[in-house]
UniProtKB/TrEMBL annotation:
CDD domains: CBS_pair_Mg_transporter (cd04606). The lineage of its organism: unclassified sequences, metagenomes, ecological metagenomes. It holds the Pfam family MgtE_N. This is Unannotated protein. Gene3D superfamilies: CBS-domain, MgtE N-terminal domain-like. Residues 287-353, 356-415 form the CBS domain. GO terms for molecular function: magnesium ion transmembrane transporter activity. One of its GO terms (cellular component) is membrane. Coiled coil: none annotated.
């Protein structure tokens, strides 16, 4: 059975994996599976499988992330990538499935009857993660019978394994999460209950929460935005990139979107509303309305001072768009672009009009995703200018905007789960 990379089967009973040989892609045996590692979650949610404990010569047990497993079939496991030979050490809230779950006494939720766990099955979810969704149990036998009836139940039908969410204050929790990147914090929030998720969101400042929302999957961010008060939600939307804010407002329904737009600052709302009129997979739907724009009589020093600002995304910092007044989008006529490499080679007092590249043809808001991606690849650019019929600059589409639309919808969650399993 292959794993998430192309398998039709999506359930594996883990007790049957004990002693299974582990091979690399070349067919060389690396060791044997001795156990699986899962992370317990709150409120009776199914544990997520992080990886396998593999015994390699000479009798050393190491951790292999589930993301490295490419196949489980015919009595063998195939993995790819380099092995971390550090000896396996369990972490808090992790459980060794075979050694800590099997033969354990748990209760059936409906009847409170005690049963014994004989095996557990991990199943592949739509997000590409593996969760323990099934438990094979044995009831206690009556009289002199040593074994009772056995059956397979869902994880939600038993109790006795999961942890309960602690009453850790939000301030303490925020202290723990303070140094996480936005994408990693989004992953942590995904596993919290909606109540605790909202508590954390309300405690974050507007800019930090905006960054986190941009990294969350569609369902989670819509759910979270719905829990924020109108004024707070509007403030957070103002801190988001206009294209991301437009995407989010498209997802929450027209009535709620219009209500939030009315609470936003008029200039911010205008940019977002303009983007909402475009098709999601068009250049207009993907572009940001806040590229770096200067006039031809601006200097290299001025351009570099804008490029080096920490809030400017790398894709937008790769070039400066030179336009006639006004320089707020929609601008005056687009003259051309000056790339960051050229800026670094020129004296600070040099005028942009003398070094502008006017040979790059812009695209329009109707340009398709395929046209935009082909354009970026053909010219080796990180951003493409988008203009109207009068050649006024409306915005720019960056390579990360394109990747966001090319990758599967749940790619952010899959990537954060991969990082979590490989960081141990």
């Amino acid at each position: 059975m292959n794993t998430s990379k192309g398998s039709n089967l999506n359930r594996v009973f883990l007790a049957r994996l004990a002693g299974t040989a582990v091979f690399d892609p070349n067919g060389d045996q690396l060791g044997k599976v001795r156990d699986a590692v899962a992370t317990l979650r709150t409120n009776n949610q199914p544990p997520r499988i992080l990886g396998f404990i593999v015994e390699v010569p000479p009798r050393k047990r190491i951790f292999v992330p589930i993301t490295r497993v490419t196949s489980i079939d015919n009595g063998h496991v195939i993995i790819t990538g380099l092995l971390n030979m550090r000896r396996f050490e369990p972490r808090t809230n992790e459980i060794s499935v075979l050694s800590e779950m099997l033969d354990r006494s748990v209760n059936l939720v409906e009847s409170n009857e005690k049963v014994t766990v004989e095996d557990v099955a991990m199943e592949l979810s739509k997000t590409g993660d593996w969760f323990i969704e099934r438990v094979h149990i044995m009831k206690r036998g009556a009289g002199f019978r040593r074994r009772g009836a056995s059956s397979t139940v869902t994880w939600s039908e038993i109790s006795g394994f999961t942890i309960t969410e602690t009453n850790q204050g939000v301030s303490n929790l925020l202290g723990t999460l303070a140094n996480l990147r936005a994408a990693d914090l989004a992953s942590v929030l995904h596993d919290l209950t909606i109540k605790r998720r909202v508590e954390v969101a309300r405690a974050l400042d507007d800019e930090r929460l905006a960054d986190v929302l941009e990294e969350m999957d569609e369902v989670s961010r819509v759910e979270l935005l719905a829990e924020l008060e109108g004024e707070r939600a509007a403030d957070v939307l103002e801190e988001m990139d206009p294209d991301d804010a437009a995407d989010l407002l498209r997802e929450i329904g027209q009535e709620r979107a219009q209500a939030l737009l009315a609470l936003m600052e008029p200039e911010e709302a205008e940019d977002v509303q303009r983007l909402m009129h475009y098709e999601d997979y068009s250049a207009g739907g993907m572009m940001t309305t806040e590229p770096i724009v200067l006039t031809a009589d601006s200097t290299v020093a001025e351009a570099l001072s804008r490029v080096r600002l920490s809030e400017v995304a790398p894709g937008l910092a790769s070039q400066v768009f030179v336009c006639r007044q006004p320089i707020e989008t929609p601008t005056g006529r687009l003259i051309g672009v000056v790339h960051i490499q050229r800026l670094l080679r020129e004296p600070p007092a040099t005028l942009l009009g003398g070094i502008v590249d006017s040979d790059i043809a812009p695209l329009t808001v109707e340009s398709t995703l395929n046209e935009v991606s082909s354009y970026l690849a053909s010219y080796n650019l990180l951003a493409v200018p988008i203009v109207d019929a009068n050649e006024r600059l409306l915005g720019a589409v960056t390579v990360d905007d394109v990747l966001d639309h090319l990758l599967p919808e749940n790619w952010r969650h899959e990537e954060s789960m991969r990082k979590e399993s490989e960081s141990r």
